[in-house]
Design goal:
Biased composition (Acidic residues): 101-122
Number of helices: 4
Strand order of the largest sheet: 3-2-1-4
Order of helices and strands: EEEHEHHH
Largest sheet: 4 strands, mixed
Distance between the termini: 76 Å
Region (Disordered): 84-131
CATH architecture of the domain at 6-87: 2-Layer Sandwich
Length: 131
């Protein structure tokens, strides 16, 4: 079992969270109020199932998705989660998160054209079809 990661899957259950911890063929479930409390409970169960801390890797998942768990846990730990946020498809959440970080290619193209035009003027070439 040293090479098999322990998986902890979290699922919203109304106001609470259902936690399923799987370590090899062993599985335990629990419920907790709030995601932070659910993670704390999961750690207790992991310790019971695999007491050798140096021999375990734990993967936390929110409805099967590690990215969603990480985002939700950090949000719950450091701020408020809007009610029902997990009901939006994960792909939509990831797309919305990356939209603001994508480069504006139109502005980049305009800047490239300006540099090329500037270089052409410096070399004495006609720019923009005038010549």
């Amino acid at each position: 079992m040293a090479n098999t990661p322990v998986t902890v899957n979290y699922e919203p259950a109304g106001e609470d969270w259902k936690v399923v911890v799987t370590a090899g063929e062993k599985e335990r479930t629990a419920e907790a109020s709030g995601l932070v409390a659910a993670r704390d409970r999961a750690e207790e169960i992991v310790e019971e199932l695999v007491p050798q801390a140096d021999r375990r890797t734990v993967v936390h998942l929110l409805e099967g998705n590690a990215f969603d768990f990480t985002a939700a846990y950090l949000q719950a730990r450091h701020g408020e989660l809007p009610a029902g946020w997990w009901e939006e498809p994960a792909a939509d959440r990831r797309e919305a998160a990356t939209e603001s970080t994508e480069p504006d290619t139109e502005k980049a193209d305009e800047a490239d054209e300006a540099v090329l035009a500037d270089e052409a003027v410096q070399e004495g070439e006609p720019v923009g079809g005038r010549g």
